[in-house]
Fold this sequence. Notes:
Blueprint: E1 3-5, E2 10-18, H1 24-31, E3 45-53, E4 63-74, E5 79-84, E6 94-100, E7 106-111, E8 115-125, E9 128-137, E10 143-152
Antiparallel strand pairs: 1-2, 2-3, 3-4, 4-5, 5-6, 6-7, 7-8, 8-9, 9-10
Amino acid sequence: MSMMIDSMVNMVQNSISRIESSDQEINNLIQSSSLSEESEVSAPFRMTWAAESDWEPDDPNEVSSGSCLIVPIPSDDSKGVLLRSVGYAEAAPAESSYSFLSDGTFLLTTQYEQSIAEERIWFVSEHVRCRSSVLRTSAGSGVLQTSFASEVRRLSS
């Protein structure tokens, strides 16, 4: 479990559980994508989260939560496709391309119906992870949103 604390007091708790490659949900997600049903799946998992934020003016104590099935389909050791049952920028299934840079930075690019999300995730130390994102118009000509977060692993409960 990890926790993220932003300057605006945003706390996220998440958990990850592995799913068998033969699970029907995975087959359904692959069938709904542009990929072949014969695609080689690598270590699929379900991520769940619950977030509390003081950013919400209506109810700062409101908890946002959800779950997403994530299915990596590598094309080689450093890149591939990532299928998600729910996208980050739009609440619909998403098909992303991913790659790892030589320094370990993870790049994820997702073309949604109305936007393009570009995300970078990297570690600055064993317990500190950074994440940046740029959300562009679907034509790629305008920037809709940018973000940066640093996340610190909680070592004890």
